[in-house]
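Ticket #4471: structure output looks truncated?

Reporter: J.K.
Steps to reproduce: submitted the chain below (559 residues) through the standard prediction queue, then opened the result file.
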Amino acid sequence: MNSAVDQFLDHYFFRYPVNATFTGVRLHDHELPDWSPEGLEDAQDERDALLMALEEEHPPTEDWGLLARVPSALDAELARGALDVQTMEFESRHFHQRNPALWTGEAVFGVVGLMLRPPANLRDAFASVAMRLHELPRFLGDLRITLTEPTPAPWTARALRECAAGAALFRTGLPRWLDEHGADVETRAWVMEAGETGARALEEAADWLRARPPAEEGAAALGSEGYAVLLKRGHFCGEEPGALLQQALQAFAPARARLEALAGEVAGGLDGLAEALADDRPAAHELLPALAEKWEACRAMAAEEGLVEWGDWPLRYVPIPAWAAEVAPQLYFLFYRSPSPLEARAEHVYLVTPVDAGVPAEERVRRLRQWNHSALTLNHVVHHGGLGHHVQNWHATQRSTSRIGTIAAVDCASRIGLFLGGSMAEGWACYATDLAEACGFLTPLEQASEQQSRVRQLGRAIVDLSLHTGVMSYAQGVAFFEEAVGMPRAAAEGEVAKASMFPGTAVMYWLGTEGILAVRERLRARQGARFSLKGFHDALLRRGSIPVPLAARLLEAEA
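Returned output as attached by the reporter:
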């Protein structure tokens, strides 16, 4: 008989088939989820039964030593937390019943996920793409039944962008993808027929969304009760939102002061920093070689400094494929997407905005200003492609003693697979840039850029905590990003829109980073000369993407 954790994983992959595809489970490649009212009710009934099975097999416990020693007990505790978060999402009506972008992201990336990582058998890939496209009228038809709560205008705007980009992709990008993968004439015809079906379904959904009146501003907030569940059961954090908010606010002013000092040294002040960063950029022909060279330098630095086991996962920087290049900016199209942990591949690719001769000169310069040397080092190598996410994903896939920790932080359609994976995935990636700075890997200009990221990270935590607990209104959140953080208006509006759609997500970067730093120093104090930085990092990562506050308790119990 399957264990309760086995049952949880079977339920997860069945109820979240697009997540299953991104995780490398191919059994459900042809399906989209059932988010009809009846489907959501059935899923909740299954969650209730799973909680009973988990409690019978592994009763809830705060015996951290036991959880550190027994992987099945740890996975049971993680499964309980994940189910509690999913129950809160269902009962709050903030997600499937209010957020159309959750639906449009699932619709588009249910297909894009197959296009990015088709199964080895291409006939299966073509068939799965066509079946998911044919599923879109049913899936988006359920949107019109389930989405009963009023929707904030920025959420609808994102969903409309995704509808337009998805329809364009299915009409113009899909034939390019089929040609790249050698589809014959007959196959091309029936897949493209499915593409037209999918495109029309997105356009009809967009027409329906445009006709809906927007919600009042208050609809963007989850509320204190739901947010407390995210902190306690999702992040395994015992602190109250108010206490965390005070900590973030206290850290904000010193962080901002350090940013102003660094910006003054390298660019004459904050006003000149953005231009200085953009001007320090590679030429078009240097971009891909510069990324590869910086990646190797980062790996060498980690080895020389004895930071962490890097693993053997080669990564190659390549341009975004032609079939996706035109629509990628309008979608949640990640440059680095976590490798599928349950489907081994010999090589991983990191997608880069094209800057070749086919791009008009003015646009090429604009793109290179975005892919400047600081962004290249901090974002595309240290944080994502190297020491940060890529190394953490290797540990989660190759070394994790937790089955749930192996899959939790997989990048899916609109967010990661399981909410509880976020503080480790993003906390470690932000902590990795701290390590790079401490090891002298950053130039002075890159140090200023990284400090600007820390200020924004704190700002995101403050707005996330404040918005969903009623301390700050939506408009006040936008004003805070503009005035205190120093973001342009459009960027500030985008940050608050993301924070409102996915509560508890923006805070996890700061929460994870601070949690790692805190447990590191506690263990260093306890162990004295026996403390090993590499040993600490390897031990931290070896259970995969589990909440940092929980990982800290397990490390201290072991120590």
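Triage note (M.O.): checked the attachment and the full token line is present. The chain has 25 helices and two strands.
Status: closed, working as intended.
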